[in-house]
Design a protein that fits this description.
The protein is of the alpha/beta class. Helix content is about 35%, strand content about 25%. It is built from 13 helices and twelve strands. The strands form two sheets. Strands 6-7-8-3-9-10-12-11 form an eight-stranded mixed β-sheet, sandwiched between helices. A four-stranded antiparallel β-sheet has the order 2-1-4-5. Strand 1 and strand 2 form a beta hairpin. Helix 5 crosses helix 7.
Length: about 325
């Protein structure tokens, strides 16, 4: 498997009345062909801004991609012209957004919204696009697709609207699908159905996926590898089994400690991560997790640790990750 997407030292900021918000701070990662990469972390950690930067969908102003490279099939998407990036969006890289009701146009039928991409990128006629749209709705499990194709978004339930969004994203058979918390507002039954659909389509189409979520329970059965983000940094990255079985960063350990478990008897209450994330306008010089970390030392206050390899395919940005391992062993 080759590398499909390579992001290098990506930095994105927002210029506000209160100062410059450093939303993404030198993020580097790669996605291989056919791989599912999970981006996890609490709200405001930079997950969505990272992928919106990849797609060049950051509103400018107030936003600005301050530096870095986004290499997709060898081309830097941050330097290509507007026409070329439009040929990539929705065609080779597609995105499913968190809230389908605000992403779908309320005054256009589903047929029109799916068909637009097919006509633009694949040169289909309206009749060909309509036929393909029906096939896509069937693919994502919408019953009576022929009769629903002329419906408007408000005529669908929340789960069905999310399926429509997935159908739209898959219309041109993209090589990379970016899903930005697509199951947040859904109940657990519909959530499970959406995840099953995405896993099945990944097998059938062979596409790569970036799945953004704050829910580690969702990503556990979906991702091949996980990047944990905090305050605009990637602070740990490893295969999914490594993250769950051998977390090395105190923040990752805290995230795992706050997940309800059904597979074992929990003797203690869920452990919250005390404190608040740092102000992204006045970023600390040291580790951004310093104020909330029980493993902190004087060095952490003054020096921000780089993301370094600690084991095979496992990297962590922490000066004291060995202490985390020891603490887990005593737990």
């Amino acid at each position: 498997m080759g590398t499909l997407l390579e992001v290098k030292d990506l930095r994105t900021e927002f210029h506000t009345q209160d100062g410059v918000v450093h939303a993404v701070n030198g993020v580097t990662f790669a996605v291989d062909e056919g791989e599912t990469l999970g981006l996890v972390g609490e709200s405001g950690c930079g997950k969505s801004v990272s992928v919106l930067s990849v797609m060049r969908l950051i509103p400018q102003p107030p936003g600005k991609i301050a530096g870095g490279q986004v290499l997709f099939q060898g081309r830097d998407l941050l330097t290509v012209d507007d026409e070329e990036i439009r040929s990539v969006r929705g065609n080779k890289i597609a995105m499913v957004f968190q809230d389908p009701m605000t992403s779908l146009n309320p005054v256009l039928t589903i047929d029109t919204q799916i068909g637009e991409s097919l006509e633009l990128h694949l040169g289909m006629t309206k009749e060909q696009a309509r036929k393909r749209s029906v096939e896509l709705l069937k693919m994502v499990g919408i019953p009576e697709a022929e009769g629903r194709i002329e419906d408007y978004p408000h005529q669908f339930s929340g789960g069905m609207r999310q399926r429509v969004m997935i159908a739209m994203a898959l219309s041109c058979t993209p090589q990379l699908l970016i899903a930005d918390e697509p199951t947040t507002a859904l109940d657990v039954t519909i959530l499970a159905q959406i995840i099953d659909i995405v896993k099945r389509l990944k097998r059938e189409l062979g596409m790569a996926i970036i799945w953004i979520t704050h829910d580690l329970g969702v990503i556990a059965g979906l991702a091949d590898r996980i990047n944990v983000m905090y305050a605009g940094f990637i602070i740990e990255t490893a295969p999914v089994k490594e993250i769950f079985g051998n977390p090395l960063h105190p923040y990752t350990l805290g995230l795992l400690g706050s997940i309800p478990r059904l597979d074992e008897t929990r003797k203690e209450k869920l452990t919250p991560i005390e404190g608040l994330p740092p102000d992204l306008v006045t970023m600390p010089t040291g580790c951004p997790f310093y104020d909330r970390c029980r493993f902190r030392t004087e060095k952490c206050l003054h020096e921000n640790p780089p993301l370094e390899v600690s084991a095979v395919r496992h990297s962590v940005a922490c000066w004291n990750w060995q202490d985390v391992v020891k603490a887990r062993g005593r737990a």
